[in-house]
Design goal:
CATH architecture of the largest domain: Orthogonal Bundle
CATH class of the largest domain: Mainly Alpha
Distance between the termini: 57 Å
Largest sheet: 4 strands, mixed
Radius of gyration: 22 Å
CATH superfamily of the largest domain: 2-methylcitrate dehydratase PrpD
Structural class: alpha+beta
Helix content: 40-55%
Number of helices: 20
Shape: globular
CATH topology of the largest domain: 2-methylcitrate dehydratase PrpD
């Protein structure tokens, strides 16, 4: 009988060394850190981040604790993790995998806190992030739509487990301790999708809470020495049964047309030789990531074809069907996605496509504005009217996610069509990400020199004896 899923991950994580990692994996993990540290500077001044820091220092200050990024001060292991996660999450500059999972503001802050407290090197940090990210991506991969359909928000659910494994690796736990950390985390992972369906504010604590719960799970594994449930993931009353509805791999929804079954063996197949983390994308706009390629494609088409929005008769955006029914076909925010076009509201693809068609793009976080109202599309009557009368979403079950096509029909009968395939358009390398992050100027609080320092510090991550250079690179001026 094959080892349990958590056992296979724990054994791999326990034996993984920096020297085992392919160069492209190391580079991608450095990019995750670069993205997260940039988001720290962008998120630090945000009010919700400020409140989280104040709360943490009031309740969990600890003179010899971990550093709270940007703001400074020290707090307990779990307190600093929570504050740093909130800071990173506040900017909206987060990474994304399979549409609904965002490990950056969960795993990275926990990793930095624990690496600081345990005196780990940059290489140690990279290895720990590899095991955490890979656990998240492999566990959630085909199960994200099923998890969302159960009413759970996938990102914090799966990222809690990844954070636990990353933390346990930095704590120096062996195979049994790593397996226990996964088990404890599976028992604490939770977040609901109701806020995504009605636009509630619950999401503000989802990722930060996942970060602190993951750290708590790993610390509990170390402090108690208890053995976790061996089959906590695939057991008949385990994690998959709870968050997908069964432990047999049956899925009610899929990004792939007609797929209704997942072989659980695929979760760990190729572990250590095939890295899912290489396919993660980096979100540059503060809203659902599937809108990013729509904005960028429309921007490119407007330039290439010299499109004047006043000459457009109709704009069709072809997308994966699940993207049009966010957060889940089981309970979409707009059950009729064409009604979303009429009702409008921030968060609809119709508005973002319209804004890009009219104003030539959308402002990245910290970057220059496009159009008269900047971020607030609901205040731009021209965009609103265009979205309601011209933009239409087209569901396609066989279209890959994050790979939209746009058809622009002009009033004179001319038709322009563009495609934005996920690979290689969104699987950015370190250098591609660094270049794109320049768009965050001029609103970057540390300026161009500060951004360059962060880029150089993260690039040399495997040369650092500890994580202090990362902490210093994002200090509030």
């Amino acid at each position: 009988m094959a080892d349990s899923i958590s056992r296979q991950f724990a054994r791999w994580a326990a034996n993984l060394k920096y020297e085992d990692l392919p160069p492209e994996v190391v580079s991608k993990v450095k990019a995750f850190v670069l993205h997260a540290m940039t988001s720290t500077v962008l998120g630090g001044p945000e009010p919700k981040a400020h409140h989280a820091v104040e709360f943490t220092l009031r309740e969990e200050a600890k003179a010899d604790g971990a550093t709270i990024l940007w703001a400074g001060g020290k707090a307990t292991r779990i307190g600093a993790t929570f504050a740093n996660a909130e800071i990173m999450h506040s900017s909206g500059l987060i990474d994304s995998y399979r549409m609904l999972t965002h490990p950056g503001p969960v795993i990275v802050p926990a990793a930095i806190v624990n690496a600081e407290l345990e005196g780990r090197s940059g290489k140690d940090l990279i290895v720990a992030l590899v095991v955490g990210y890979e656990l998240v991506f492999r566990l959630c991969d085909e199960f994200i739509p099923a998890t969302a359909a159960r009413g759970f928000r996938p990102s914090p659910i799966y990222c809690t487990l990844g954070t636990a494994l990353t933390t346990a690796k930095l704590l120096g736990l062996g195979e049994d301790g790593l397996a226990a950390a996964i088990a404890f985390a599976a028992n604490t992972a939770n977040a609901l999708n109701q806020s995504s369906t009605e636009g509630g504010g619950d999401n503000v604590m989802h990722e930060p809470n996942a970060a602190r719960q993951g750290v708590f799970a790993a610390v509990m594994a170390r402090e108690t020495g208890a053995k976790g449930s061996e089959h906590v993931i695939e057991g008949r009353a385990g994690f998959y049964n709870a968050v997908t509805g069964n432990n047999a791999g049956d899925i009610p929804y899929s990004f792939t047309d007609g797929k209704t079954k997942v072989d659980l063996a695929s979760v760990t197949a190729g572990l250590g030789s095939e890295y899912r983390l290489l396919t993660a994308m980096f979100r540059m706009y503060p809203f659902a990531a599937y809108n990013q390629p729509v904005i960028d494609l429309m921007q490119e088409m407007k330039i290439e074809h010299k499109i004047n929005h006043e000459d457009i008769e109709r704009l069709d955006v072809h997308m994966n069907w699940i993207e049009t029914l966010y957060p889940s076909p089981a309970f979409p925010r707009y059950p009729d996605f064409d009604v979303a076009r009429i009702e409008g509201g921030r968060g609809t693809t119709h508005l973002y496509a319209a804004h890009s068609a009219i104003n030539g793009g959308y402002p990245v976080i910290g970057g220059k504005t496009y159009g008269p109202t900047g971020w607030d599309l609901t205040g731009d009557e021209v965009v609103n009217e265009f979205a309601k009368t011209k933009v239409h979403l087209v569901q396609e079950k066989d279209r890959a996610m994050f790979s939209p096509a746009i058809t622009v029909t002009m009033k004179d009968g001319t038709v322009h069509r563009g495609e934005y395939p996920y690979t290689p358009r969104l699987e950015w390398t370190y250098d591609q990400l660094a270049k794109r992050l320049e768009d965050c100027l001029p609103g970057f609080a540390l300026g161009a020199a500060g951004l360059q320092k962060i880029i150089e510090t993260c690039s040399a991550l495997d040369q650092h004896a500890n994580v202090q250079p990362l902490i210093d690179a994002v200090k509030k001026p």
